[in-house]
Amino acid sequence: MVQWESIQELMDEVVKEMTKKMAGIDLERTSTDVLPRDGKVSALIAEVSGTDGFTLVYNAEDALLWEIAQNMKHRPVADMDEVGEYTREYFNVICGHVISRLNLKTKSSLRFAMPQYLPFPFVGKDKEDALVLYYQSGKGSARVQGVYANNANN
What we know:
Elements: H1 4-23, E1 28-30, E2 41-49, E3 54-61, H2 62-73, H3 80-106, E4 111-112, E5 116-118, E6 130-137, E7 140-148
């Protein structure tokens, strides 16, 4: 089983690097969850299979996802459906970099499915057995969570 400790630094580096590169947004790591409780949070989910199975979940404020999509498109997006299209690609790139680097580091053979966009938050059941990283920017906050496959159901 891939240990979260081997993923944490790698995941943090990739999330910040790709968010800056693809959307021009600097994410800063925080120690606590600052996602709002008002329901304006969406999720991106990617199922990872291979040597070990786990799910990567990226919950973010809709305002942050909207900004990421607009910056990727280089012009305004029409609606949350279009935000979903662009942010799925954004998370696809993040997952690709994480899985590629993780496979090299741990000699694994992990693969991932195309991420899904969910217009609502998603949290795995067993947070104690999860990798959880928190981020904040001037555009909003986000939480990245890794949950092993047997804990991924709501």
